[in-house]
Amino acid sequence: MAQNKEKGLKIFSLGLQHVLAMYAGAILVPLLVGRALNLTTEQLAYLVAIDLLTCGIATLLQAWKNKYLGIGLPVVLGSSFVAVTPMISIGTNYGVTAIYGAIIVTGLFMIICAPFFSKITKLFPPVVIGTVVTIIGLSLIPSGIKNMGGGATSEDFGSIENLILSFGVLLFILLLNRFTKGFMQSLSVLIGIIAGTVAAAFLGKVNLSPVKEASWFHFPELFYFGTPSFEIGPILTMLIVGLVIVIESTGVFFALSKITETPLSEKDLTRGYRAEGVAITLGGLFNAFPYNTFAQNVGLVQLSKVKTVNVVVAAGGILVFLGLIPKVAAFATIIPTPILGGATVVMFGMVVASGIRMLSKVDFTDQANLLIMACSISIGLGATAVPTLFDQLPSALRIIVSDGIITGSIAAILLNLLFRVKTIKQNTNTSILPTQEVSETHTL
Fold it and tell me: Is 38 left (phi over 0), alpha (psi -120 to 50) or beta?
């Protein structure tokens, strides 16, 4: 009995470690999207809470390997940074309900098309994956910089206090990475956010009333923001987001396969994609987010040497529990914008670095690879920097191409098809995804 208790406590502690490692990334997405769409404090608290809850459910679905879904590897799922700017764009132009209509359709699409995705991944060599990841990071950095100043619409944008707080958090995170190792290092972003919020409280920039007013328990609400609407432009945009998520998750699946010495078949990948599709559909129904596998948790599996699924089941259970307690979510809503800016600049910068690392494996003596990367990044950044370029296009098409991540990703995929169609046909029986590379989109 004592041994069982000790084993259970160890599994719980390791599961909590997984939750802490991904917590900063999990709460940043709802905070970024919610504040950009000017949601109320109550709505923002719900968004964080339902995100944690759905992260837990999504993690449990992947761990529960059965005939139809679940890859059965120690993966932890969280809200994807890829969806941040598309969701903000859709919400601004079509309303919040259009976001969730698009997410529901994307989830159902992924469930239905899961058997084909393992074949589609052969179309995405390292030059495409690295380019897409680099574009994601470069497109997100401007929002992080704006938050460092206090938010683009704030009255005190760029004030000395805001800059001290944001750069202070940035420096603190860097110092933690320089002088700590292992678990503390993996939690550097979360610790930086907490320390920055405490410092902001001494400057009178933290309002605790949302925490006091929040209830201790609640159930998730179906269609919390209203009945979803289905618009063709947002749907097409989110379908492309879903495809990018599949590419990212595939890299993580293969990395975990290598770490755990568990070979993956096409059926395993199908179950993994299907589980993500179910998770994304749930996100749409309960007004959460699209989900994908978190790369920093892969590093934690390697660091802890614990490769069993029981640990991520514990992590999923903890996330579900936290998602049912609004007071926990309310704590996330009191984080001042400059603190988020200091933390997100680090995280988004690491996305860029991760993409560059992937591209370093690419043969750039091949002119085709140079053109794929050069044109895709140029188009992606161009659409981000000059969104008015496509104002004359029909609204359904404009919502797709005006987002730099989507535009750049489409360009990379199409250019790869243009230059590599013969190579792809010759390698139809060989996966060209690099099994050792993981997109560290959510970690430092």
Answer: left
